[in-house]
Write a structure and sequence with these properties.
Elements: H1 3-30, H2 46-71, H3 74-79, H4 84-115, H5 117-122, H6 125-148, H7 156-164, H8 178-193
Helix pairs in contact: 1-8, 2-4, 4-6, 6-8
The protein binds protoporphyrin IX containing FE (HEM).
Length: about 220
């Protein structure tokens, strides 16, 4: 057993995931009024709209792709005639599309945070670290899509499934290229950091918005 691999790919992931779960509970209990996306739309709208739209759609596609492509075993896809070759091709083209959108969006958001005088003054170091960390994780992920061409289905994917089913197997990560390891390790660090940032808003997506009773607005009628 390689001790470094065991520490990096068994101990470290569970450490990050524990901070993620306990951190969210702690933040929810201690800072309920601060649990939001901390919108800055009233300070600057134009580049927020472009950056945020590209980033959020790219990011939601990326998360969906990671969940579907890595958590579902290839054997299940084989049963419905979707072989590893087809899986890797779909992962490549869809990863490219959502990855480019997410990276372009986060770069626009980062530029806005750093260069718009009002947004910068109202923002905090925490906001800049969050966007900086997202940029790093997304950029390395996209680098892997474009230049990696590594089949993750037999190593990285079963390793992740081992983590979520509490049967970790660090040795699976041995042959994985270093840029994929950097992506995994930085993404786990971001997960651990997220409860202490504005990223908590992800868990309060207003899904009931679509089925709620409509709000009725009436024009104010001046008194006779
Ligand atoms: C679940 C669905 C989501 C909803 C409904 C949502 C909604 C929002 C809203 C309303 C804002 C504020 C924009 C403004 O300033 O007015 C925001 C900002 C932000 N969101 Fe989300 N979000 C979601 C998912 C995500 C995900 C998955 C991530 C990243 C993993 C993310 C990262 C961010 C970041 C970094 C900002 C700050 C942008 C900035 O002001 O620089 N969001 N989101």
């Amino acid at each position: 057993m390689n001790l470094a691999d065991e520490l990096l790919y068994t101990v470290y992931p569970y450490l990050c995931l524990t901070v993620f779960v306990v951190g969210h509970a702690y933040r929810y209990v201690t800072d309920r009024f601060g649990w939001n996306a901390r919108s800055s739309e009233f300070l600057e709208k134009k580049s927020l709209w472009a950056g945020s739209t590209l980033f959020h759609w790219g990011m939601l596609g990326t998360l969906g792709g990671h969940a579907g492509g890595l958590l579902i075993p290839q054997a299940w896809f084989d049963r419905v005639g979707f072989d590893a070759r087809a899986h890797m091709a779909v992962a490549y083209w869809s990863g490219l599309a959502v990855g480019i959108a997410a990276l372009a969006g986060v770069l626009l958001l980062l530029r806005r945070r750093l260069t718009d005088r009002r947004v910068r003054a109202a923002g905090s170091m925490n906001d800049r670290v969050t966007l900086g960390a997202l940029t790093l994780v997304i950029a390395v992920g996209l680098f892997n899509v474009v230049f990696g061409h590594y089949n993750v289905l037999d190593t990285l994917a079963p390793w992740i499934r081992g983590i979520v089913t509490f049967t970790p197997e660090a040795a699976l990560m041995g042959p994985v290229p270093v840029s994929y390891k950097v992506h995994v390790l930085t993404a786990l660090a971001l997960l651990a950091y997220s409860p202490f940032s504005r990223l908590v808003h992800i868990w309060s997506a207003p899904v009931t918005y679509f089925v709620r009773a409509p709000l009725v607005f009436r024009r104010r009628v001046p008194e006779a």
